[in-house]
Amino acid sequence: MAQQTPVRPLGATGAMIDEDWEALRFRVHRSAYRDPEVFRTEVDRIWNHTWLYLGHETEIPKAGDFKTRTLGGRPLIFCRDADGQVRAFFNACTHRGTVLCRHSEGNTKFFQCFYHAWAFSNSGELAALPGDDAYPDDPAFRASMALRQVPRLQIHEGFVFVAFDPDVPDLLTHLGPAAHYMSLTAKIGEHGMTTLPGVQLYSVKGNWKLAVENAMDGYHFAPTHNTFVGYLRETGFAVTDDDQYAYDLGGGHGLLVLTGHNGRIGMVWEPRFGDEEKTRTVTKRRELEARLGPELAAEVADASRILFVFPNLLLFDLEALTIRQLEPVAADRTDVRAWQFVEVGEPESVRALRIKTMVSFVGPGGLATPDDIEAYEAVQRGITATADSVDPAHDWSDMSRGMANEKQGNQGRSIDEGAMRSFWRRWAEVVGAGTSVAGDPPAGTPAAGPAAGGAGK
Amino acid sequence: MVKVESREVTRAEVEDFLYREAQLLDEWRLDEWLTLIEPGGRLEVPTTDWAGWDATTAGYFVADDYELIQARVKRLKSRKAHAENPHSRTHRMISNVLLLEAGAETVWISANFLIHRYRDNGAYTYVGRYEHVLKVDPDGLRFRLRRAVPVMESMDPGARLSFIL
Hints:
CATH class of chain B: Alpha Beta
Strand order of the largest sheet of chain B: 4-3-8-7-6-5
Structural class of chain B: alpha+beta
Organism (chain A): Micromonospora antibiotica
CATH architecture of chain B: Roll
CATH topology of chain B: Nuclear Transport Factor 2, Chain: A
Oligomer: heterodimer
Protein name (chain A): Rieske 2Fe-2S domain-containing protein
Helix content of chain A: 25-40%
Number of helices of chain A: 14
Strand content of chain A: 15-25%
CATH topology of the largest domain in chain A: Naphthalene 1,2-dioxygenase Alpha Subunit, Chain A, domain 1
Number of helices of chain B: 3
Region (Disordered) (chain A): 434-457
CATH superfamily of the largest domain in chain A: Naphthalene 1,2-dioxygenase Alpha Subunit, Chain A, domain 1
Pfam families (chain A): Rieske (PF00355), Ring_hydroxyl_A (PF00848)
Strand content of chain B: over 45%
Domain Rieske (chain A): 52-162
Number of strands of chain A: 22
């Protein structure tokens, strides 16, 4: 690992995270969202040295299928080679660095650079070297010019992760308890799950951490999504925030378990899904119980979940399913990619209901996500007000909600800010940001998810 | 000009219909706009990787049935539609109108659009084409399917679809 310089301390206390268990205050210095130097440090410490979600293996189902995708600012080829193995390469010709594949997707046996016509097989070997008589007649030379693989690639339940640092621990170690929640989602479909074409690609004028906070923040739901809640009410469904909890899964990963937010297609019926779906939900629940047993079936089906896998994956397991990937571009800009994730082999009417229902909520054209985007962007603009030396005492964002409850040892609610706090603690640890802790944090280890048999306290 | 069972439809009539619709949307006269949608009509915005998939088989940006169109209008009229309060300023240009095919009571048309949107000192450009199915009434036209296909490679920073594209 390269020598690391600490993030320049900012704020009155010299820390970027200010946590005080006497005053019950948790706040984040606003330079964390704003400062290009912090952003560069994040790319170096997080994106260059942590497992990153690349894509789902169902995006490239056949040998030769490929997608090109930028991750951590690096252009990559995500492909399935001739033998069916999933691979990730740096999308740069080993000769002069030209972007090798300039298509966003396709199927090919070879990636040929247009510049000097070097060609590489979809497993990375240098397959064509025009005018090779002027190069060393040595297999070692050709081997040295093979396409560069991303150092680490591992797959959990079809979710493909890569790391640019060869020394990261195993993927399952990184995922910790988050792996279980990915597995729950993967179990929904009797015949498996798949991503669909029709990927939402959009970009927001906000720091990537605002998107993480927003997803781990049940407190914003009622005021921000007032019109969406109103729409649900009119369809005959009353949203509630009662008895719903947030979990710190360690490693910066977080989970909201939402029992009162919506139905779940095939699992928990609500009126807007229609009568046909009501009947199918009964059948589908029976199928889940027969296949998984009643306890696991209940865990898979009963509650909606929003899972954050540090640093760039959000899995929305709600009415239907969306996989969302965050790609930081600058301190004030984040590219977002979102896929519909569906049951393999489900009836066309269910597929249609799923797509209609999910995109009406989640995505830049939905009835809810645009208001979240408005929030990230309004924060990004608003936090310039207190920047620099103008108002240092107030250049902080507050995330204290629920600390009193947490101090008493109670499980944090989805409408508290505990999941955001655990994210920020991990962030500070990884980027080397200063943290000031006063008073005594709650004793004991927080529950890494709901206890078996229900989303209890 | 094309002919459906009941009457003829000219390009000028379709152009007038599209221009009038653009005016209603730019002026945020959403109740009047809603009357241009046939009950049972659909509002669709495919994603930027669209390759002709319909909204029953692929992800979309917008895949509204008539109930959701009504809910969308109701939302956009609310002060609590934060993403559009205050409203974006939009300015729509429509051109290259083609009458593609006539059905028994519908005509399938395409047109290019260029929409400029301004908000919070940001300027956003949305470029694409419409591929609409219009129901031909005795005295006018209505949308059976209103589909706006973005031609951009992705939605630019800040270019959300909080308004009607």
